[in-house]
Amino acid sequence: MKILVVADVESNYLWDFFDKSKFSDIECVISCGDLKASYLSFLVTMLGVPVFYVHGNHDKSYGSHPPEGCDCLEDKVITYKGIRMAGLGGSMEYTGGLHQYTEERMQKRVKKLMKTSKNRIDLFVTHSPTFDLGDDKNGVCHRGFKAFYEIYKSTMPKYHLYGHNHLTYSSSAQRLLTYNDITIINGYNYYVLDYKQGSWSV
After folding, report:
1. 188, burial (CB in 10 Å: exposed 0-12, middle 13-18, buried 19+)
2. CATH number, domain with residue 153
3. Strands (E), the chain
4. Cβ of 152: how many Cβ atoms within 10 Å?
5. In a 3-state reduction of DSSP, which class is residue 148?
6. Residues 6+ apart with CB under 8 A from 10
7. Which tens digits make up the pLDDT trace of 107-155?
8. What is the DSSP string of 64-93?
9. Would you place residue 197 in the very low, low, confident or very high pLDDT band (cuts 50, 70, 90)?
10. Quick one: angle between helices 148-155 and 103-117, nearest 10?
11. How many alpha carbons fall within 13 Å on the CB side of residue 122?
């Protein structure tokens, strides 16, 4: 099946010039954060498929006005059409704001999630990248979490989807990375992930 991954910026192609016929084979949407709640509500309404999301560090309004009709993936495991997906939103702490975490606090969330998942996740969804895998060391804000390596080691997800570090930030930014057979995808703007029965493929 095909999964629409979105993150960080609202796509004009999806919002202002939406054409459902071009996305008729999409079976679910996954948001990696920092998107307007109204945008996600638009996608769930127009596409007519489930939308799962984690919080970005700028998604402060979600507390009072969450995306209508969408499912929050934070700190939990949700199974959809046989795919076990789990989410941990937020960024590295840089101002002490909402949805910001120190490495130690994220480590506690990771441990709790691993217990919930029983060490089996197909698709790992975060806002921030993993340390040294698609992150940016120029400032604390866009630094990745080392704690995510524990998820990799214990659950061996097929995919890790993330956002936060825009592909426009650096000429060396990469959409796709691999680590120990795990495909890591930056969902900036939008990306279509093609899932074939019995195996994952990009």
Report:
1. buried
2. 3.60.21.10
3. 2-7, 26-31, 51-53, 71-72, 77-80, 83-88, 91-92, 100-101, 123-126, 159-162, 176-179, 182-186, 189-196, 199-200
4. 19
5. helix
6. 35, 36, 39
7. 999 999 999 998 899 999 999 999 999 998 888 999 999 999 999 999 9
8. TSPPTT-EE-BTSEEEETTEEEEEE--EE-
9. low
10. 20
11. 14
Helices (H), 4-66: 37-47
Number of structural domains in the chain: 1
Nearest to 77 by CA among 124, 30, 7: 124
Residues 6+ apart with CB under 8 A from 174: 134, 186
User: Nearest to residue 87, comparing CAs of 174, 148, 38, 166?
Assistant: 148
Residue 200: its pLDDT value, please? 41
Radius of gyration of the chain (CA): 16
Query: DSSP letter at 133?
Result: B
Which strands sit side by side in the sheet containing 182-186, from one edge to the other?
Answer: 77-80, 83-88, 123-126, 159-162, 182-186, 176-179
What is the chain's mean pLDDT, rounded?
94
Q: Which burial class, exposed, middle or buried, applies to 149 when counting CB atoms under 10 A from its CB (0-12, 13-18, 19+)?
A: middle
- Print the domain residue range for 14: 2-200
Model confidence pLDDT, tens digit, residues 70-119: 999 999 999 999 999 999 999 999 999 999 999 999 999 999 999 999 88
Q: Is the distance from CB of 51 to CB of 70 less than 8 angstroms? A: yes
Q: Which three-class secondary structure state does DSSP give residue 20?
A: helix
Global pTM?
Answer: 0.95
